[in-house]
Write a structure and sequence with these properties.
- The protein is α+β, with helices and mostly antiparallel strands.
- Helix content is 28%, strand content 32%.
- The chain has helices at 2-15, 28-35, 39-51, 80-86, 105-111, 150-154, 157-164, 183-189, and strands at 55-58, 62-65, 71-74, 91-102, 118-128, 131-141, 169-179, 197-206, 213-219, 225-228.
- The strands form 3 sheets. A 6-stranded antiparallel β-sheet has the order 4-5-6-9-8-7. Strands 1-2 form a two-stranded antiparallel ribbon. A two-stranded parallel ribbon has the order 3-10.
- β5 and β6 (131-141) form a beta hairpin.
- The longest helix has 14 residues, at 2-15.
- It is elongated, with a radius of gyration of 22 Å.
- The chain starts with a helix and ends in a 17-residue tail after the last strand.
Length: 245
């Protein structure tokens, strides 16, 4: 649907740095010309944004930004729950599946386990202020985390690992690519199957650089926007060498 594309494009604009809450949007005629759509199509898009609480419209006064969906700046490794709470938002999770599996070859390699060893598999939909932001699939070793329950996964996985299991999370490897969602992913994230999402593979490691978990995250980029600041750290004693040395 054309108007849904306009909804998504306007969400990116509104949630970005261009607008602040209270700012006026361009006039309907200007927006329609900019996006090369009819006034009726644009009005349908604006009606969705108004229903979502992002904008407010008054006849004769214009359209202005009423709210912004989730945005955050991250300067170190935080969990989804921590990112939301740091911004004063309420995180929650819906568990779609929680079961024991025999580790596939890929999962066993990622967790450095023998093939077919028992692992937990959890699939959960992550919300911030009741808006679906992220779909997560994650695997953890049953041997290492024998007490993991569905209750832990409904809250914060990192909190369970660190506070209850006493495992220090040293860091996390992340690999990111854009993909088109499957029909199920589009339905759960309330987007079109033609809208791109971010697929992120993550692997947290402990202080001994041993894998803690392996996860695949699918993020609704129209609702969940995170800006990362990664400081450059110089390793003590490390000196640059000339090429060829």
């Amino acid at each position: 649907m054309v108007y849904q594309n306009i909804v998504n494009l306007l969400k990116i604009k509104i949630n970005g740095p261009l607008y602040n809450i209270g700012d006026l949007l361009p006039a309907e005629k200007e927006l329609a010309e900019y996006y090369k759509v009819s006034r009726n199509t644009l009005r349908k898009a604006l009606a969705v944004l108004e229903q979502d609480g992002l904008i407010e419209r008054k006849h004769g006064a214009g359209t202005w930004v009423k709210n912004k969906h989730f945005q955050a700046s991250v300067t170190h490794l935080d969990s989804f729950t921590e990112i939301a709470r740091n911004e004063g938002k309420t995180p929650s999770s819906r568990i779609l599946k929680f079961e024991l599996q025999a580790a596939s070859e890929d999962i066993a390699n990622a967790l450095r386990l023998p093939p077919c060893e028992a692992v937990y598999y959890a699939k959960r939909l992550r919300f911030i202020d009741n808006i679906a932001m992220q779909l997560e699939e994650t695997w953890l070793s049953v041997t290492r985390f024998p007490d993991l329950t569905i209750g832990h996964m409904q809250k914060s996985k990192y909190a369970y690992i660190e506070k209850e299991c006493g495992v220090k999370i040293e860091g996390c490897y992340e690999s990111i690519i854009p993909v088109l969602p499957s029909p199920e992913q589009a339905r759960l994230l309330h987007i079109s199957a033609k809208d791109p999402i971010i697929r992120m593979q993550t692997q947290a490691v402990d202080e001994y650089h041993q894998p803690i978990d392996y996860s695949i995250l699918y993020t609704n980029i129209f609702e969940f926007q995170v800006k990362y600041y990664l400081p450059r750290q110089t390793v003590p004693g490390l000196q640059l060498q000339k090429a060829g040395q």
